[in-house]
Amino acid sequence: MIGEVEAAIVERLTGQLTGVKVEAFPDKPDTYNMHHPKGTVLVAFGRSTYSAPRSIDLVVQERRVEWDITLLMRNLRDHAGAYDVLDAIRLVLTGWRTSGCGKLMPVREQFLDQRQGVWTFVLTMAHSVTVVECAEEEDLPLLKRVNTEDDYGTTQAPPGEPDDD
Fold first, then answer.
1. Based on the number of CB atoms within 10 Å of its own CB, is 39 exposed (0-12), middle (13-18) or buried (19 or more)?
2. Membrane spanning segments where (predicted)?
């Protein structure tokens, strides 16, 4: 699921943003060099948190998935600078959903660094996904007969059926 959602976010941003390169966060960020003349947007899974189970017999939880959208820009305030692109990313992703997930919503934006003329910001977006266990069939005895008792008397097997009492 994580890989598919990451790819969908990259595709969405690529189709909506102009003047910047959009890609998945690199496997080796320490050796990554931004070569685009204006800037790059990097998409990465950030973290997940889980709610308490909603059921006692089956594991059903809400999973909150956070995505870190890192922005590397050569300009801060100019047209198509970091501020404008940060706003554009938030607008493009807020309320958008991919298959099987809730709508994305912004969590936080923050300045990270400025080094060698490159401004770095991160926008964290989140959505929820319902998680349900893959239940395995249990080998339990077959229920063959039920006798119940209520305020109206005893319910028994219809005449002609065996009564084991």
1. buried
2. none
- DSSP annotation of 26: P
- How far is the C-alpha of 153 from the C-alpha of 109, rounded, in Å? 66
Provide the token pair at 150.
């209520």
pTM of the prediction? 0.77
- Number of other residues whose CB lies within 10 A of the CB of residue 86: 20
Query: Cβ neighbours of residue 17 under 8 Å, at least 6 residues apart?
Result: 41, 85, 88, 89, 92
DSSP string, 35-85: -SSSEEEEEEEEEEEEPPPS-SSS-EEEEEEEEEEEEEES-SSSTTSHHHH
Q: Topology of 2-134 in CATH?
A: STM4215-like (3.30.2000)
Residue-range domain boundaries for the chain: 2-134
